[in-house]
From TrEMBL:
Pfam families per record: Epimerase (PF01370)
GO BP terms: L-threonine catabolic process
Organism: Williamwhitmania taraxaci
Name recorded for this polypeptide: L-threonine 3-dehydrogenase
Organism lineage: Bacteria, Pseudomonadati, Bacteroidota, Bacteroidia, Bacteroidales
Residues annotated as domain NAD-dependent epimerase/dehydratase: 26-263
GO molecular function, one term: L-threonine 3-dehydrogenase activity
Family annotation (SUPFAM superfamilies): NAD(P)-binding Rossmann-fold domains
Length: 343
């Protein structure tokens, strides 16, 4: 059963207006990354090109996002510049996708905290000052070694061993705090590894599940950094995009949770994704060369999460599984390869 969590935190100040607005003008911060580069066109398709502003630290690699809608250079750590953009476009919903991921975070924990928490605090404050709703993804990385790994419950022990996870747990707490204390409409999901074919992820522990498809299409042998048997939750990008909009459009009176919902679509380990690819490309080969940091991180994360609360509270219902995703990934990446678009 989905219980209200946490309980007993004082409601937001009485003189604070609790604002629930329709998403009309949306800002995607960190738009050039793996999720942002696909979320921007997805949102533009629903809400209109001119109503979805893409912003990134460095727009040069994501100029494509400026072709049919607004694109801004934005350092999310610069609160003044961030607030100016929110005011300029009368933004009422922010998707804060700025993050240094789990494996990169362990190389420089101080920088990971500075970027992940700096962008989040600015997003929360700017959302509060401007009455904007805020979506910030959490992750399976918010869990740790002492969390139940099989059927990880929605409300459970959260004691991560990575700086990425520490930021995610802190972010979840802050999101709920800003909601209860100031009435900010902050919502979030705990994303599993996201598999996609537009922009490569960078610095994550689950990245192997994207890279393996590119290696297969290029006719290369893949070296897997995680050991066989390492189960992790995963999701194909179309389901991740659907989740973002479905949660932000959900009736707030139905939400017992906010920050953050377990959501999953599939769980597999490296030899299963290998088998799925080999079923379609029997010549494909994978070897293991285990990265001890990634192994430790992956082993501290759930094997699979229980996402019943997301299903019950806002209708989460993923479409893609390992088989259908593998068909699509290989087709899309092969098309790009044929056109000479792969590096
Ligand atoms: C990572 O591997 O760091 C991310 C995540 C699961 O949050 N993909």
């Amino acid at each position: 059963m989905c219980q209200q969590f946490p309980k007993g935190i004082p409601k937001y100040q009485e003189n604070t207006t609790y604002i629930i607005k329709d998403m009309k003008n949306i800002l995607v911060v960190g738009a050039g990354g793996q999720i942002g580069s696909e979320l921007v066109p997805y949102l533009r398709n629903i809400y209109g090109d001119s109503h979805v502003v893409a912003a990134d630290l460095n727009c040069a690699p994501c100029m494509k996002l400026g072709e049919n809608g607004p694109l801004e250079n934005l350092d999310a750590l610069d609160g003044k510049q961030y607030a100016e953009i929110v005011k300029k476009y009368k933004i009422d919903a922010i998707f804060n996708l700025v993050a240094l991921l789990s494996a990169t975070g362990e190389k420089n924990p101080q920088l990971a905290w500075k970027i992940n928490m700096g962008a989040l605090m600015n997003s929360l404050e700017i959302a509060r000052e401007n009455g904007a709703a805020l979506f910030t993804p959490s992750s399976i990385g918010a869990f740790g070694n002492n969390t139940p790994h099989d059927g990880t419950p929605q409300d459970t022990i959260m004691h991560p061993s990575t700086i990425y996870g520490v930021c995610k747990v802190t972010g979840e707490l802050l999101g709920d705090y800003y909601h209860q204390r100031f009435g900010v409409d902050a919502r979030s999901v705990r994303f599993p590894g996201i598999i996609s074919n537009e922009t490569l992820p960078g610095g994550g522990t689950t990245d192997y599940a994207v890279e393996v498809y590119y290696a297969a299409v290029k006719g290369e042998q893949f070296t897997c950094p995680l050991p066989e048997g390492t189960y992790l939750d995963m999701m194909y990008m179309p389901d991740a995009l659907k989740a973002c909009v479905q949660l932000m459009e959900a009736d707030p009176s139905k939400l017992k949770h906010r920050n953050s919902f377990n959501i999953s679509a599939m769980s597999f380990e490296p030899s299963q994704i290998l088998a799925a690819i080999q079923k379609r490309m029997p010549e494909f080969k994978m070897v293991y060369n285990v990265d001890p940091i990634k192994k430790a991180i992956a082993e501290s994360w759930p094997n699979y999460m229980d996402d019943t609360c997301a299903r019950n509270e806002w209708g989460w219902n993923p479409t893609w599984n390992l088989e259908t995703m593998t068909d699509d990934m290989l087709k899309v990446i092969a098309d790009k390869h044929a056109k000479g678009l792969l590096k």
